[in-house]
Design brief:
Number of domains: 1
Mean pLDDT: 90
Number of strands: 7
Structural class: alpha/beta
Radius of gyration: 17 Å
Distance between the termini: 52 Å
Helix content: 40-55%
Strand content: 5-15%
Strand order of the largest sheet: 1-3-2-4-5-6-7
CATH architecture: 3-Layer(aba) Sandwich
Largest sheet: 7 strands, mixed
CATH class: Alpha Beta
Amino acid sequence: MMRTVAPQPFTFTGGGERAVLLLHGFTGTTADVRMLGRFLQKKGYTSHAPLYRGHGKEPQLLLQARPSEWWEDVKAGYHYLHELGYEKIAVAGLSLGGLFSLKLAYSYPVVGVIPMCTPMKLRAERAIYEGLRDYVSHYKRKEQVAIDIERFRRESMDILVALQEEMIQVKQSLEEIHAPAMIIQARHDEMIDINSATIIHQRIASEEKEVKWYEDSTHVITLGKERDQLHEDIGHFLDQLHWS
């Protein structure tokens, strides 16, 4: 059987002086933000999307990594854009990538921040585990390999706790964010409590901030039916930022 090519980080050069760091979610890959990256490239923005350790590979490799290492991957992506010569960087992230985008916004200078479907509250405690289970099941079907899901469940508890702690830490630090923010939320998000968007909006200190709702979208909004409108809205937001 021919196996699929593993996802990779990408850098799409736009030709201008503006750059955007794109961050995927937990159990996701750079494929989740690839179309957004291509759209931004056509508008003259350079985009870079790191692939977090363990993602897009065997589920066991995912469990061997930790959110602290994924945060290191995010920071490396930010510094990579600086090394390419980009002094002004905006950041957009989906789900866990949204958490990291907020964390980046209070840890480093960013021109703007776009958290998409970003959890401050989970819809249920089992939501993250269900995402993991779906990841394992999909991998088993795609690669036709045997995986002990029950063993995987037991071994996944540490990573789930660490993700919860990451969410709490970011929530407690939202008041440190001053960059312009566009908070994006799918109305039919099946993974997180959609009131998370309101919490972010209320708590961040940014003077320029808004929440945009997408009435026909689910959690992975970047691949959903409203993605074209999402692209246009993100492009408009980025165009209005103070890049000079």
